[in-house]
Each structure stands twice: as C-alpha cells, then as structure tokens.
Amino acid sequence: MPRRMTGRMPRAAVVGLGSCLPARSVDNEEVIAEGGLDSSDEWVRRRTGIHRRRRVAPGTATGDLAVYAAAAAIESADAAPDFVLLATTTPDHPCPATSPAVAHRLGLPQVPALDLAAVCSGFLYALATADALVRAGACRRPLVIGADTYSTIVDPADRDTAALFGDGAGAVLLAAAEDGAPGALHAADLGSDGGGAALITIGAGGSRHPDRQRRDPDAHWFRMRGRSVYGQAVRHLTDSAARALAAAGWRPADLGAFVAHQANQRILDSVADRLGLPPAVRFGNLRDLGNTAAASIPLVLADDGPQRALAPGTPTLLTAFGGGLTWASVALTWPAATPVRRTLG
What we know:
10 helices; single chain; alpha/beta; 5-stranded mixed β-sheet; 345 residues
C-alpha cells in the first residue's frame, strides 16, 4: 500500500547515521569448511555475489550490536531520541523485547521502545512507522535500528543459507523537518502475503510448535526455499519500488541512488534492470558483508561508497523483501548526516 507524505504535516528526515559491525570477517572457504558443504568459493561468488561476511564473537548478541550502532547514530546527529524502534529477527530473548534493554543501555530512561518483526523488510517497516509517529505528533526524534545476528540461527550445514548471511547493525535518527530538507522521507510502500510464510521460516520455538525438549532440533534452524523466494523477491521488490516512486512523484530517471536489501546479487541486478536503473546509481555492500537482514539497508546508508558519491538531497529509493512474506520501499532524499561507525569484538 503506497503512501505519499504531503506537505500538510512535518516530514521526518534522517539526521543521524550509525553502524556497528563485528570485527571478525569470514570468507567463503571458512564457511564451506565449517559446515562441510558441497560447494566452492567460486560457486558462492557466482550464485550470490558474496565473498565474505562478518560474524559476532561467542556471547555477543543482537542487542550489543544495536546499542553500538544506535549510540553512533546519536553521536552523528548530536541529539537524543525520544522513541526507539528496533527491527530484528534475532532478538536477545523471546521475551521481553530487546529494544527496552537497548534504550536503557543508551541512557534513555522511560523512552518508549518496541521491537518490530518483518524479517529483512523490518528496517523499512520501522522507518515508515517512525515517520508516521513524527507526523502524528507522537514523537519528534525517533531512533530506528536494524540489527541481526543470523549466525545464531543459520544451520552451518545448510548449503542453501550458510553462506548467505552475516551479522551487523545500522541505525538512523529521524527528526521533524521542513519540505526540501536533506534526508526527508517522501513516500513509502508496504505490503505482505502470509500465503508465502513457509518460504522463509524457523519452524519451532513459537507457540505453534514450542518443542521445548528440542525433539526436532532441525526445526530450530532458519530455513529458506531459495528458488521460490527468488521469483517472489524480484517481483515484489520491483512492484513496490515502482509504487513508491509513483507516490513520491519521481521517475526512475530522477534517482541518484538505489539501495535494495542486500540479499543476492542476481536479485539486486534483476530488480534494478527491470526498473531501468543504470549501474552508476546502484549502491550496496553485499560482496563484503553478505545478507545482514534488517541491518542491510542502514549499513549501506552508512557505507563509504555512497557517502563519497552522493550529495545531500539526492533522490534515493530504498527497497526490501523478507519473510512473512513482506516487502517495503521508501523514497527519500540522501541525508546530510556524517555517519559514525563502530566495530565490536
């Protein structure tokens, strides 16, 4: 469902950018050896575009990455948030939510905080939610974090997923802004199709299949039907991106930057080609970070490449697809914020 942000209410704009990556970098050969996979470095690179990814050290949780990325975004903006939204599929605990603990560790007592679960679309869902909160007057400076540690839920022996995912966190601080401000959100498109829920799933651990004695250990791993997901992802990413562009009143030719969820290079190229976007406007970090799920898009926003190439105010399109199934796109202008980056471990 596309939504255009009109000028009748204040827009939300990105005023702070932060990121946090684990120190450990793991190449394809190490992933293959760890899981005993029937694969090769060449096969992984050719099929996915991924050469390496970051992995958290034992004992490091999603909340730890989220705190460092959030603190970096706060430093970037030089302003304190009054609402915290954390998009993640890998919370520290099933209960309670991770975001209140993150807010507490950031020194934000009694600030509203919530977790948002939309898998790899989660950051854009949270970004659109934060914009709505600003426009409704519920807050003025929401902090939006995307953080995941997929190394804790991916089966190292699963050839379909083991090489795809990495760990990381990215965050943005938003603030109410006037029309024309760099970083301002112009339109959003969100959607879902629960009929495809089985394509990306962890079968056990919830109320549907608690399996408290872990009689079915295999069901506690993340599973994905890659071939089926590929077609769904390309179609929904392309359609959602087109709707967000139309809602913003932009044409593909107007874009100076296109940032898609870093899932698979073939997916990214297919979507950009269908939208008619040249390589010069496509930005990503899949090669070195892999699929970092909800952290994927904010990590690109804070990356050196687009930061050097793009001027504040450049029309930018963000799009993501994830389990649920869910998809989301946001049209905004490139922020003026200078990213602050952290490394953990």
